[in-house]
Amino acid sequence: MEFPKKVYYPAIYHPEEDGGYWVSFPDIPEVLSGGEDIAAATEMAEDALGIYLYDLEENGESLPTVSNPGYVSVDEEGAFIALIDFDYLAYKIKNGNQSVKKTLTIPSWLNSLAERENINFSQTLQESLKEKLNV
């Protein structure tokens, strides 16, 4: 299953007595987060959503259906709705930078030429893949 590049989920910011906020996602009740102010709560909510959605993708599971924010109701005083986005590529670049060993086969004449020119095979492959994938 291919996930969209970017997805937006409505989140409800619930005020806390100490001035912070805890954040819930109506479409994903198991994801909760919070912070000492709106900025921190948003950053933590983005992180919590990212971890959850990345895990779904890694396990081949489907995305939860996204509610129309216009139909999400907030009855709690001081609470409000905001959209939290998740960008798969940005998340993978930020959190998935561990190296993976790949074995490849090239013609011996090409190998000889590249070694003579001191070409870094890993760097060249990475650059070529990024160009090919437009990332």
TrEMBL record:
Domain of life: Bacteria
Gene3D superfamilies reported in the protein's UniProt record: 3.30.160.250
HicB-like antitoxin of toxin-antitoxin system domain mapped to chain residues: 9-96
Coiled-coil intervals, chain numbering: none
The protein's name: HicB-like antitoxin of toxin-antitoxin system domain-containing protein
Organism encoding this protein: Listeria cornellensis FSL F6-0969
